[in-house]
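Lab notebook page, bench 4
Experiment: in silico fold of construct C2
Operator: M.H.
Input chain length: 165 residues
Purpose: comparison with the prior construct
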Amino acid sequence: MNAIFTRTSVRSYEERLVETEKIEKILKAAMAAPSAMNQQPWEFYVVTNKDVLQKLSESSPYSKMTAKAPAAIVVCGRKDGLTVPELVKVDLSLATENILLELEEQGLGGVVLGIAPFTERMEKVAEAISLPQNLSVFTIIPFGYPLQKKPQQNRYDKTRVHYVK
């Protein structure tokens, strides 16, 4: 899969709406992620409302680009009806990675914003999107058509690989 080796974090976007068909493919990719005991704890909030994007941009010191993004996905997890609640964050991480890879496949770009486990950030996001009590905010992914594309860094480091034979 080439997207693994070309995907980068994108923080600047063209002033251009993202097509609904592309957003749907991104969400399908998210929901294709592996899930512990197939619990699929995810819920996704797609935000295109400029006022809400502005509020999301104020949720952390690192989320300013969200105000200028044409869209954002807020990845959330259910708190109830879970088989293995200890693995919800793993499941949400896998879904988040699938979102990033599908953004790349669609000619888009985005960036993951660290929201959980910071209570204040989580509360600000929950308030901005009127999140129900049975859900918990995990991350925000602002996205759109990149203003510019940079090559990905080669992060492969042989010294971090250990074979157990």
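Observations: The longest strand covers residues 135-144. The mean pLDDT is 97.
Next step: discuss at group meeting.
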